[in-house]
Design goal:
single chain, alpha/beta, Rossmann fold, UDP-N-acetylmuramoyl-L-alanine:D-glutamate ligase, 2 domains, seven-stranded parallel beta sheet, 18 strands, binds ligand NPW, binds potassium ion, EC 5.1.99.6, Nnr, YjeF_N_dom, NADP
């Protein structure tokens, strides 16, 4: 799914009005009605007080449309205008008149703290104060209003975006934005739903379709994309009946040191589970028995070093290499790594200590093959690109780094973001159970295993990150957040592959009756036999 920028959203609205021959007032009617339908379906007329707080721009206009429909359907609505300036938008004014036609309870004007209404914890707050048009710091009294929302504990539904957040830059330190329980966003999710600093403002969100021009949505190139099953499914490579292990590449995992052999075991398992035809692990001598026992499917090559890698020399040409897991940063290992990079021709997935070595010796970045995949967690990323002040700066700096060195960077986190030049891909699978040692090692193996099978590196990365998270999601049912281990993620990768082809629950329920009957008949027949 595409994540449009603020400018692209405005352009989409404009084009839609033009191509569908509708006015911006009509579009606002669609937006407000979509929110109303969402609420009406869930509330079914329940008389819970609903406090609708409207700003004076188009987000406020959406709130007025919603309030009007709620009122005409008999809901218990109190509407407020948050008087944040003088420039009321045209469509706000149209809907301000319209709401006055359906109720004697005209919207209440809020101008200062003393005007704040009492809100009971069981009431509902609708936040339509600011949308994507926020362009300067919010007045302190309105920030206090947002704090007031939170202090009531009432369920807060934000329209389009929690008020007080920008779509493309961080909020000023010390300022407050609405903490929404749910956000209903028009046409496309906003990037801020996925960034660590702002995601807590809208932990749950949903996109409502307001009929923005399809051609525009299809043809518009966005900088950010959301990656879910729908996006990765086309990557999937089917296996030919006559295929053999030689068709799926020979992957190599390089890493390990005394006390850290588990990392190589996990990465090798991940690589095999992702489908690599053959797997070899290149490890220090001390890891030989560990590796051969833990992963009998893999071959082991040992370095001259006993406790850590000292030479890094081998004589075959792997299809892809995952390097760095459990590697350590001993000076001899660093020298061996540099020597390896000078000779290497295979595509690389670089993780953990290999990233730390690159950070220590940035000149080595020049030796990376074009299209290499780097998989840092935030601390490793900071060592590579330097500190950042906020999430937006982090993404910008990573983009710059990615373009400069012609590599892709997988920023691991709650929503792993793969940065590929200017493009950012936000992964949607995964859960907090993955905050456990070794999960990253498995990911390195999975991506390497996919490259082995001929997936282009960027596809292997997006697919691998998705499958890895999905495997963890499926494993939750058995292990819960606390007991989920990295090895469960490697073991469950097959489930994640199979899950790609499962129909969503809803569609299964909508199975045509005749098919259901046929199934029942077949079942009964089998039972009779
Ligand atoms: N486009 C469309 O066709 C559709 C749009 N839709 C909806 O419109 C929303 C965007 O609407 P919007 O552009 O009017 O901006 P919005 O977020 O309501 O802000 C209001 C105005 O407040 C001002 N302002 C800014 N910062 C401020 C501050 N700190 N303190 C005080 N004032 C401040 C600023 O105006 P200014 O004062 O700069 O002239 C700004 O314009 C979008 O999120 C969606 O909900 C839907 O109806 C579907 C169709
Ligand atoms: K809002």
């Amino acid at each position: 799914m595409k994540i449009l920028s603020k400018e692209q959203i405005y352009e989409g609205d404009r084009l839609t009005a033009e191509r569908q021959n509708v006015s911006s007032t009509d579009l606002m009617e669609r937006a407000g009605t979509a929110i109303f339908n969402w609420m009406h379906m869930r509330m079914q007329g329940a008389q819970v007080p609903i406090h609708v707080f409207c700003g004076i721009g188009n987000n406020g206009g959406d709130g007025l449309v919603l309030a009007r429909h709620l009122i005409t359907h008999g809901y218990n609505v109190i509407t407020y205008i948050v008087n944040c300036g003088n420039g009321r938008s045209k469509d706000f004014l149209v809907n301000y008149d319209r709401i006055k036609n359906v109720t004697k309870d005209w919207p209440k004007l809020l101008t200062c703290k003393e005007d704040f209404p009492e809100i009971h914890v069981d009431d509902i707050i609708v936040d339509a104060v600011f949308g994507i048009g926020l362009n300067r710091a919010v007045d302190p009294w309105i920030q206090e209003l947002f704090v007031h929302f939170k202090s009531t504990g009432a369920f807060t539904l934000s329209i389009d975006i929690p008020s007080g957040l920008y779509t493309d830059k961080p909020i000023e330190p010390e300022s407050s934005a609405v903490m929404a329980n749910y956000t209903l966003s028009f046409q496309a999710p906003k990037l801020i739903f996925f960034l660590p600093e702002t995601a807590e403002h809208s932990t749950q969100w949903e996109v409502l379709d307001i009929g923005i021009d399809r051609d525009y949505l299809m043809s518009t190139e966005t900088e950010v994309e959301l990656i879910s099953k729908h996006e990765v499914l086309p990557f999937y490579k089917r296996r030919d009946k006559f295929s053999h292990k030689g068709d799926f590449g020979h992957g190599l995992i390089i890493g390990g040191s005394k006390g850290k052999m588990g990392a190589v075991v996990l990465a090798t398992k991940g690589m095999l589970s992702a489908g690599a035809g053959l797997a070899t692990a290149y490890i220090p001598e001390c890891g030989y028995t560990v590796l051969q026992t833990a992963v009998p499917e893999a071959m082991a090559l040992t370095d001259d070093g006993d406790d850590y890698i000292e030479d890094l020399e081998f004589e075959f040409e792997p299809t892809a290499i995952g390097i760095g897991v459990g590697l350590g940063t001993d000076p001899k290992t660093i020298t061996a790594f540099e020597h390896f990079l000078k000779l290497n021709k295979a595509p690389l997935v670089i993780d953990a200590d290999a990233l730390n070595i690159l950070s220590l010796s940035k000149k080595l970045l020049k030796l990376l093959p074009e299209g290499s995949i780097l998989t840092p967690h935030p601390k490793e990323l900071e060592r590579l690109i330097g500190q950042w002040d906020n999430d937006f700066e982090k993404l910008d700096k990573t983009s710059e780094f990615s373009s400069k060195h012609k590599v892709s960077v997988v920023i691991k986190g709650a929503n792993t973001i793969t940065v590929h030049g200017n493009k950012k891909y936000v992964n949607t699978s995964g859960n907090p159970g993955m905050a456990t040692g070794g999960a990253g090692d498995v990911l390195t193996g999975v991506i390497t295993g996919l490259i082995c099978q001929g997936y282009p590196p960027i596809e292997a990365t997006l697919f691998g990150v998705y499958l890895h998270g999905r495997s963890a999601d499926l494993a939750l049912e058995d292990y819960g957040y606390q007991s989920l281990l990295a090895s469960h993620i490697a073991d469950g990768l097959g489930e994640a592959f199979i899950d790609l082809f499962k129909q969503p629950e809803q569609e299964q329920q909508q199975e045509p009756e005749p098919e259901k009957e046929a199934q029942q008949r077949r079942k009964a027949k089998r039972a009779r036999r």
